[in-house]
Design brief:
mainly beta; six-stranded mixed β-sheet; 11 strands
């Protein structure tokens, strides 16, 4: 995925997509608008999609619309830590999305969290959701293993975006990759920035159920992140 910055005014940024499609705002989005945002982490593609369709209430556990598909069941869990890497961080919003079993981002009408395409046809599809860490900084996502893009040139991955409470903007962290993926080359491994910590997971498999742990350290290797945070 190439991380590019859509050019939009901040107010317009959240009341409609950069591509001209209007979306209903939630209480969470309006609260986000009221903050004086400190931009960190650099530009990334479609950052505003983080808030499209976001529920008013978000739990520490989420089950994606893919859980009932025929693919390999996958449970991702982890703990989010403050920048000290020790103290758990509560109320951290994590937005995730990934491809379907054909390696595509597809909108499925009628699926609650599915994102309708913009006028340019851009969408994060129907396998997307949000979790918010509990008092112990923990979260859990039930989904299926994604597939690589159809061109077979990029390893299967799960995109993650983090939004902390307060005035720091959302920022992306290293996508989740799978250590046994044959498309995860030495070159790709070397190019990883370890934003928020390593996103390469060693999966455990028990009777067809895969589990992996993705811990996150806030601000780690995130450009422009305030040192005093």
């Amino acid at each position: 995925m190439k991380y590019l910055q859509p050019i939009c005014l901040l107010m317009f940024f959240y009341f409609s997509s950069c591509n001209g499609q209007d979306y209903k705002n939630t209480t969470s989005e309006k609260a986000h608008l009221s903050e004086k945002i400190l931009k960190v982490g650099g530009a990334f593609e479609n950052s505003e999609f983080t808030y499209i369709g976001i529920p008013a209430t978000i739990e520490s556990i989420d089950t994606s619309a893919a859980w009932n598909l025929e693919g390999s069941k996958l449970i991702i869990s982890g703990t989010v830590y403050l920048p000290d890497g020790i103290s758990p961080a509560s109320d951290i919003l994590i937005y995730y999305y990934h491809t379907n079993l054909d390696g595509k981002y597809v909108h499925v009408p009628g699926v609650k969290q599915s994102m309708p395409p913009t006028k340019q046809g851009h969408t994060h599809g129907f396998i997307r959701g949000w979790v918010k860490t509990d008092k112990k900084g923990q979260y859990k996502i039930y989904t299926v293993k994604p597939m690589p893009y159809p061109n077979g040139k990029e390893a299967a991955h799960i995109h993650l975006t983090v939004k902390e409470p307060g005035n720091i903007s959302e920022y992306y962290i290293d996508s989740i990759l799978f250590n046994d993926d044959p498309l995860l080359t030495a070159e790709i491994r070397k190019s990883r920035k370890n934003r928020g910590g390593s996103g390469i997971l060693n999966l455990m498999e028990t009777e067809g159920l895969y589990t992996g742990k993705r811990d996150i350290i806030l601000g780690l290797n995130i450009p422009d992140y305030p040192k005093s945070k």
